[in-house]
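Honest question from a wet-lab person: if I give you the sequences of every part of a complex, can you actually get the arrangement of the whole thing, not just the pieces? Trying it with mine:
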Amino acid sequence: MANIAEKIQQYTLTLPPEVTLVAVSKFHPAESIMEAYNAGQRAFGESRAAELVSKATALPKDIQWHFIGHLQTNKIRQVLPHATLIHSVDSDRLLHAIQTEAQKLGITARILLQVHVAAEETKYGFLPYELLQCAEELLPQLPNIEVRGIMGMATNTDSSERVTTDFIEIHNCAMALQKIMPQASIVSMGMSHDYQIAVAHGATMVRIGTDIFGNRQY
Ligand SMILES: *Cc1c(COP(=O)(O)O)cnc(C)c1O
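Yes, you can. This is the full assembly:
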């Protein structure tokens, strides 16, 4: 198996230039992150607030930390100062809470709205029509939030037809959002097992963990 640095080089060579690689380092140690860093990788994804904060504090300051996990309102204050982008904003309630904390900190929070298209009921996110409604009605009232695009996950299935349909739906939702908010140009979709389909259907950001760092030890 290729080592971490070789994996980063492969992705750098094979991903289209307009697609950003977020290396998902959750549950992996600082040494693994530094291997990727030394191969030129700067964007890393974490799913737990405490882990993101401790890694951000200890590791080089030019790393861009992406928060990709489900965000609880009581963790916003910790995460905001360290996160370049929060991918997983999935409710009006969370948006209100992020606005409150961003205002207190005197910053603009950059976020993606998470859209739910997968078959699993357990996945978080706005339904496409809810997401667009939120963009039109709620977001204009939240001056400390900058929506940069959409994040979505496909159904966890062996059916590449279903995965393809899901990514097309996420992309369609992103295009509709861009009509309302032209700056919301990021389409974050695709993980280790399905990123090639995501890229073929318009992803501009992929989130790859296992294929770069190996299996996570929970
Ligand atoms: C863990 C995680 C990933 C990475 O998944 P892999 O299968 O390890 O590539 C991507 N996106 C989200 C939201 C995740 O939680």
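Two things worth pointing out. The mean pLDDT is 96. The chain is about 40% helix and 20% strand.
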